[in-house]
Amino acid sequence: xxxxxQDTFFITLTPRQLPSLQPxxxxxALLAYRLGPGPHLYRAGSGPLPRGGLMVVNDGDFDGLxxxxxxxxxxxxxxxxxxxxxxxxxxxxxxxxxAQIVRQLDEPFARRDWRLFVPEDFAPAxxxxxxxxxxxxxxxxxxxxxEEAVERFGPARTALxxxxxxxxxxxxxxxxxxxxxxxxxxxxxxxxxxxSVFFSGDLCARYFTYMDGEGRAHFVLFDDEDTLRRxxxxxxxxxIHTFLAAWDQVSSCAAHIGIQRYPSSRxxxxxxKPGSS
Length: 277
Fold this sequence. Notes:
This protein is α/β, with parallel strands linked by helices and 277 residues long. The protein is 29% helix and 26% strand. It has helices at 18-21, 68-82, 96-111, 142-153, 183-193, 225-237, 247-250, 254-257, and strands spanning 8-13, 27-36, 40-43, 54-58, 86-90, 115-119, 130-134, 158-161, 166-170, 179-180, 198-200, 205-211, 217-222, 242-246.
């Protein structure tokens, strides 16, 4: 499946993984920052950082205390110092200061023509941000989900966050949440059960069912290289051409999901601007 000229892939990875991304027509998003007490911006690892690409900011250590304004300024200054052209705010919490941080970054990033990616819950706080829509669903239709997102935010602000997910749901599952399965755990379960595996067109994922030793029904929903490719195609049909994915999950199937190789090895400095050819 060839990448269209409109597509932009942002790949989250550690600085040490950058050399493996160089041959691919994708922009790096560095897993190198976290929010912490103060609040302040902290480096999530050691070692030198290259210039360019995006910064990824995690909120795992954020306690919600303190004035968020200086923290927002820290993020802008770090982007300027490192030559970043945007940021991915990988916020899993819902503490009120996080929305304030998003709101305070929206205008400075837009003024500098930087990209700012946020989870859907934070979209109302910042009209210029790109909104990350997860590719994994436990119910409904991915096609309708993406069409609704495009109608709400517009195609330019909507990004599909690709995730090679796997979950084991004990039925009934009223919350729509299952037990996450690692690739190893999924492989062991399939080897033990030898189940009949089916494809859900609505969810764009594979699934199988089984009964456990206590007589409870289970529904296992998972992705593979082919379902990720199909999800990219569904997004394109909805008008979405911006994708985010973790290198750990897609490095083995980059070409299959539509990421093209450069004609020759590129220097990281040439990858500074997302979408450059």
